[in-house]
Amino acid sequence: MAMTAPFAERRFAAFLFDMDGTILSSIAAAERVWTAWAERYGLDVQTFLPTIHGVRAVETIRNLALPGVDAEAEAAALTLAEIADVAGIDAIAGTAAFLGALPPDRWAIVTSAPRVLALRRVEAAGLPMPATLITADDVTHGKPAPDCFLLAAERLGQPIAECLVFEDTPAGIAAAEAAGASVMVVTAMHHRPLETRHPRIADYAALRVTPAETGALLLSDL
User: pLDDT value at position 3?
Assistant: First the structure.
């Protein structure tokens, strides 16, 4: 694992986790559903698929500006299809133990997925359910806007500047930066290197968290 020394010694008020590609692997399931949708509308699948990750489905569809397409209705139908397809969804290595070691009031999942889909995927991956879950349904502007991370910090009662965001996509990283949080990039699902100035981890298998007496969270290597 490559983690810079400042994060290994810094105290954080809370951890905010993206979901898909960050704490669980759902890319194969999502791409199965989106491939069928893209083919139905005559899109170039290989070009289109990279655009779906890290942002809300309704915004992905709106950005295509397809004539006569109701983005909200299509996004709702896609959500139902994704809820039905959870084959191959697994937790990223070490995630369950890492999340299980966190105080319930010091972490949140912040995802671009709708709430019903987020609940389904977290359950399918066998991960603990957070007390604070921010989804596409909770914000007007999704990632890369900072709204979702700011809302998560607010609900946890912690300053966003003292939060560490775990992310895997450019849109999510940009949202965390805009919010003013620190960022850790999770590379478990990356097929090619991502250009970033932030520290990276492949997964959580060699990462340990120790709550301090003040309630702050300390990161260290196993």
Answer: 46
